[in-house]
Each structure stands twice: as structure tokens, then as C-alpha cells.
Specification:
- The complex is a heterodimer of chains A (about 350) and B (about 280).
- Chain A is of the alpha+beta class.
- Chain A contains nine helices and 20 strands.
- Helix content of chain A is about 25%, strand content about 35%.
- Chain A has a six-stranded mixed sheet with strand order 6-7-8-3-9-10, sandwiched between helices. A five-stranded antiparallel sheet of chain A has the order 13-12-11-14-20.
- In chain A, helix 3 packs across helix 4 and helix 3 packs parallel to helix 5.
- By secondary structure, chain B is mainly α.
- Classes of the chains: A alpha+beta (about 350), B mainly alpha (about 280).
- At the A-B interface, strand 6 and helix 3 of A face helix 9 and helix 10 of B.
Chain lengths: ~350, ~280
């Protein structure tokens, strides 16, 4: 198992810098999720750890040993690809045992390890099949089997679930979580799906435009996002952000409504107010902080999503637990749970309240 | 699928009639080749246009095999064609892999130059090629033909191979390298087996091209013992007569290796040409 360190790592293609100032320390056995929108550099970062992309500058260490120029085969890291990348001309058993075949491990040992991995992943009856005769979920399992069989120092996952349908994705997500508990191995997992990130990660690294935006536990990112980007990227449905002007007592929204805030939140620097949909209460029309008109109401059974129009501010979303009897077109009052509100400065940085 | 089953019988008939017509049209010259090869010499002019000869003989074949230099021509052609096919495929596979996988300076220029070589009619370069080969002292040698055929076929074969490599996901090589392979091992153990259709298609393409090439063979080879088959075929044409029966018999025999070769690689070829078409 391994401790992985990235020190001021950058990646450039010619004059284009796709990753910069990446500083990250991953503890032994930690499950790290790299998350961000497409094109943010998360897959590139993973491939640099794998050794499939050269590191332009900075240092990459495994257990304190510099690995920048070590070939992928000598890094002892296993990777699960988005496309599964199973060898089409080899059956399941050979696919899984390929790394041992290359290392020229004894055949008997290879066979027993393949059989063991196949058992763990429920593939025992499929070992003599070719990948093309497998379903998406089975292929995914084979890809994972290929990784675990080697007992590597670390596992890398590159959006491993994005080719699966929704139900299977949940199932495989659980399986990966279980695998992590069983092996307690260092894992780096890339995804653009924040639900995967929140459910699997010990710590999440949010990337955008080649920069690390924030590193922290799922709850930390949810409760104390470092900036507007993280605030809106983490949490579903997305946080409502409305332009405001900071005043002595709180903030003033675009339509002139004043929202009073706790002392520690008051600042003249505030340019935007962020409130998660679940932190807005629906109250009688005429009371609360804002008055709104319900636009679309979604009843999900466990929750109710209400899309509202607030005059002079625009549309916002409110999510309440349970079934809320609101009809489209109805006038409502909204009360913001100011203790859970966030303020952002002009450049998007969160104006921190004392936690 | 059900649509085809519900078709009107006349449509089905028409479809088969069209296919039959096409087959007859395409195969008729081959039939004629075989027919004349089997017709005894004395009947060739008297019943030359009859669909079936009144008498059949294998004497043309035995004469060609045992009394002419045909076997030597045949062997020469085999050496040249296999040699050209092997070397072309080898180089084209290497170049195609590089074009498909690597980013390097001058890649576009090399590709452009390779395209340019395909733009000139061969007649234009016959004289320079002759001069080069003569100065190297390679006239009348099979090596000269192998080199020339290889050189001429490499550009097209390279593009063909490139499209096959493009069709193999890069992830597979990455996965192989993560699994402990060097790049070369990944190439041998993962990419190569998946490129077999492409290699088959390229081999077949170059083999047939070299097998039937006349222009350069005629120009670079004048000695009888180094003649390839197409040149040898011309020896059946003398100043005063054409030995049709033997010529056709030789032609039939010459088809055999091509047919065998294609039967052998057909499975890969069909797979290969289609996959290449989709990806390319």
C-alpha cells in the first residue's frame, strides 16, 4: 500500500497549461475522488499518476520515492479504465491474469488468484468467455478483477461507472466501496458525477480549469465550500446563487429586499448570496424574506422540488422533505435559513463565517 | 428482417436474377480461360466460340508444366510476391502504427509526401527506376522487383494499416502497460493479435498487386530464368502465332496461388476491410 504525493505538479501541452500547482498528499489507504466538469484535467492528472502521461514539472512521489520518470509497469499501480479496456482476444481468465502472465508468475499461482478474484466478483461461471460475450456490468467486474489480482500499491479508477445504466451504477458503486473496505488500499477515483464523489470519497478534490479548487471531506465541501464553483458543483440540486449588496445588517437583493444575517456573516464585500435548495423554508405568502410565485412543482415522494420565480431576482429552487401541497402559480413566502447561507466575494471566493 | 420475408416473389426473383447476371458477367472470362485451356489445340480455331468444347484435354496443362519454363516463372513470381507482401506489410505496419499513435515533428509532411508519390503515373518513373536498378547491378534479379514493389506499395499499405491501428482503442495499450508490459510487449501481445485482419488485408493486397504486375517486371527482367509469371506468359506469344491453349492453361495455374491465398486470409480480410471502412 502506498502514500502518494504530488508537489507543485503541472501539465503543459506546448504552451497550453492544462494543470497547474497541483499539491496533494494522499494517505495510505485513503479513497480520493477527483471531481470536476469535463476538461478540468482530472483524467490527465490520473494518467500522470499512472505514468501514461509525462509530468511537465513538479514532483510525484510514492512512499517518498520520486516516480516522475518511472515507467507505468514499474510503478505497481493498477488502473480501471472508463472503456474497461479488456483485451478482446483473451478470455476472462486470461484478461484477469494478464499482469501475472507478463510477470511470469507460476501458472498454478496465477490460476488460483484468478479463481479467487472471480469468486469475489461473482465471475466464476464466466472465466472462459470472451469480453464481447459479457454484459456491461460483467465487463466492469472483469476490469476490476484485473486490477485486484495484482495486489498493487494503489488503484486508479477513470470514470469506471459512466458507461453503465443507472441501476447498475448504484450496484457497482457499492461494490467499489466494499472493495475499498476489504482491501483498504489507496484509491484514486475520477468522476464527473458528484454523487459518486460524495458517496465514495474519504476526501474529494474538486478541479476546475486545471486548478484545485478545494480538497476536503464530502461534508466539508458541502458545508463549507471554498468558493462559488465548489458550492455549485457539490450538492444536488445546485445551490441558488443570487447577486446581492453587502450591508451593515446583512445583504440587499436585486429587488431591494433586505435579508438580515448573523453578525459573523455581515460584510460589505459580499456580492452574492448562496443558499442550497434544502435551506429555504416555504412560509405563508407575505411573510419570510422573499415573496415568490411557484413555477414548476416536482413531487418525488420523499421530497418536493419547487421551482419559483422571485420578482427582481429570477428563478430559484426550493427542496423540502416530504410532500408539500404547492400548486404552480401559487404565491409563496420564502424564508432563508441564514445559518446555512453562504456569501461570495466578487471573485467567487467564499466569505468564511467562523465555523 | 421481416420486411425481406414479406417481399413479393417477383422482387425476390428479380434480386436473384440480378445477382446471377452479375456473377455470370464477372466469372465468364474465368470460365473462358479454363475452357480454352481445356480445348485441344486443333479445335481452338474451328470451334473457338462454342460455349462447351466437344472434346476436353489436359495436354495443355501437362505441356505447360513439364515442357516450358512455367514452373520457374511460377517460383519467381511466388518469391517476388511473397517478398514484396512481407516487406511492405512489415514497413507499412511500423509506419502506420507510428502515424496512428505518435505525435512527432514533420508527421504531416511525411504523410503529404507519401500521398504525392501516389499521384504520378508509373510510366513517368520507369526510366529513372531502370537507371537506378541498372547502376546498382540489380537488373535481372528478383531482389530488384521486391524492392520496387515494396517501395510502390508502402504508401497505400501504410494508410491502410494506419486506419486499422486507429480502430484499436489506445486504452488497450495503456491497460497493457499498466499490467506490466513495455510498449513493445503491448504491441506484440495486445495490438498485434487485434491487427491480424489489417495485416491480412495488406498482405493480400500487395501479394495480388505484385503477382500480376507486368510493367516493371518486363523492364527490369530480360533473362529467362529470372522472369516472373506475367512476363513468362508473354513468351507464349511468338512472332507468328499465339499458343492460346498453353497460355490459358498457364493462366489457370497462375490463379491457384491467388485463390489459395485469399481463401486463407478471407476471414480476416472481410473483417478487416469492413472494420477499416467504418473507422477510417
Amino acid at each position: 500500500m502506498a502514500r502518494i504525493e504530488l508537489r507543485d505538479v503541472a501539465k503543459r501541452y506546448g504552451s497550453v497549461e492544462v494543470l497547474r500547482n497541483i499539491d496533494l498528499e494522499i494517505q495510505d489507504g485513503e479513497f480520493i475522488v477527483l471531481v470536476g466538469p469535463s476538461g478540468c484535467g482530472k483524467s490527465t492528472l490520473l494518467r500522470m499518476v499512472a505514468g501514461l502521461e509525462p509530468i511537465s514539472s513538479g514532483e510525484f512521489l510514492i512512499d517518498g520515492e520520486r516516480m516522475n520518470d518511472v515507467r507505468p509497469r514499474d510503478r505497481d499501480i493498477a488502473m480501471v479504465f472508463q472503456s474497461y479496456a479488456l483485451y478482446p482476444h483473451m478470455d476472462v481468465a486470461r484478461n484477469m491474469g494478464f499482469s501475472m502472465e507478463i510477470r511470469k508468475d507460476p501458472v498454478a499461482e496465477r490460476k488460483s488468484k484468478v479463481a479467487q478474484a472471480a469468486r469475489t466478483l461473482g465471475l466464476t461461471n464466466l472465466t472462459d468467455r470472451l469480453p464481447k460475450a459479457l454484459s456491461g456490468g460483467q465487463r466492469q467486474r472483469v476490469a476490476m478483477g484485473r486490477a485486484i489480482i495484482r495486489d498493487p500499491r494503489a488503484f486508479l479508477f477513470d470514470e469506471p461507472l459512466s458507461n453503465l445504466d443507472a441501476a447498475l451504477r448504484v450496484e457497482m458503486r457499492l461494490e467499489i466501496a466494499r472493495l475499498h473496505q476489504q482491501l483498504s488500499a489507496t484509491m484514486i477515483y475520477v468522476t464527473h458525477d458528484q454523487v459518486e464523489a460524495l458517496t465514495l470519497a474519504d476526501r474529494i478534490v474538486v478541479l476546475n480549469g486545471g486548478d484545485i479548487q478545494q480538497v476536503g471531506s464530502p461534508l466539508e465541501l458541502y458545508e463549507r465550500p471554498a468558493n462559488k464553483f465548489v458550492a455549485q458543483f457539490i450538492g444536488s440540486p445546485t445551490m441558488n446563487v443570487v447577486p446581492v449588496v453587502g450591508t451593515e445588517t446583512g445583504v440587499t437583493a436585486g429587488n431591494g429586499t433586505e435579508i438580515k444575517l448573523q453578525d459573523e456573516l455581515r460584510t460589505a464585500q459580499a456580492k452574492e448570496l448562496g443558499v442550497r435548495p434544502e435551506h429555504i423554508d416555504v412560509v405563508d405568502n407575505g411573510t419570510g424574506d422573499l415573496s415568490a410565485v411557484a413555477d414548476v412543482v416536482e413531487h418525488l415522494g420523499s421530497d418536493t422540488n419547487i421551482y419559483v420565480n422571485v420578482e427582481g431576482i429570477g428563478s430559484m429552487m426550493v427542496r423540502k422533505h416530504g410532500n408539500i401541497p404547492v400548486k404552480p402559480g401559487e404565491r409563496l413566502g420564502l424564508r432563508i435559513q441564514t445559518e446555512n447561507a453562504h456569501l461570495f466575494a466578487k471573485d467567487g471566493t467564499a466569505l468564511r463565517r467562523v465555523a | 428482417m421481416s420486411a425481406t420475408q414479406n417481399r413479393h416473389p417477383a422482387m425476390v426473383l428479380g434480386k436473384y436474377a440480378a445477382l446471377a447476371f452479375y456473377l455470370i458477367f464477372a466469372l465468364f472470362p474465368l470460365y473462358w480461360l479454363l475452357k480454352i485451356g481445356l480445348t485441344p489445340d486443333e479445335l481452338i480455331y474451328s470451334e473457338g466460340t462454342r460455349l462447351f468444347p466437344s472434346e476436353v484435354t489436359f495436354s495443355n496443362f501437362t505441356t505447360v508444366i513439364f515442357q516450358t519454363d512455367f514452373v520457374a516463372y511460377f517460383r519467381n513470381s511466388l518469391v517476388v510476391s511473397l517478398g514484396a507482401a512481407f516487406f511492405t506489410t512489415l514497413f507499412a505496419a511500423g509506419a502506420g502504427y507510428a502515424f496512428s499513435r505518435f505525435v512527432f515533428k514533420g508527421k504531416r509532411i511525411v504523410i503529404a509526401i507519401m500521398l504525392v508519390t501516389q499521384m504520378f503515373p508509373l510510366l513517368m518513373i520507369i526510366a529513372p527506376i531502370y537507371k537506378i536498378v541498372a547502376e546498382l547491378g540489380l537488373l535481372n534479379s528478383l531482389i530488384s522487383l521486391i524492392v520496387v514493389y515494396t517501395a510502390f506499395n508502402i504508401p497505400f499499405a501504410t494508410f491502410l494499416m494506419q486506419s486499422f491501428f486507429d480502430g484499436i482503442p489506445k486504452d488497450l495499450e495503456d491497460a497493457a502497460m499498466m499490467d506490466g508490459c513495455s510498449r513493445f510487449q503491448a504491441l506484440c501481445k495486445v495490438v498485434f493479435p487485434l491487427t491480424l485482419p489489417g495485416l491480412g488485408a495488406t498482405l493480400g493486397f500487395v501479394f495480388t498487386a505484385a503477382w500480376s504486375e507486368l510493367l516493371f517486371a518486363l523492364m527490369l527482367i530480360s533473362k529467362n530464368d529470372a522472369m516472373t509469371f506475367p512476363v513468362g506468359l508473354l513468351t507464349f506469344v511468338s512472332k507468328f502465332s499465339v499458343d492460346w491453349g498453353q497460355m490459358m492453361a498457364a493462366g489457370v495455374l497462375a490463379l491457384i496461388p491467388s485463390c489459395l491465398f485469399f481463401i486463407f486470409i478471407q476471414r480476416y480480410l472481410v473483417q478487416g476491410l469492413t472494420s477499416g471502412a467504418v473507422k477510417g
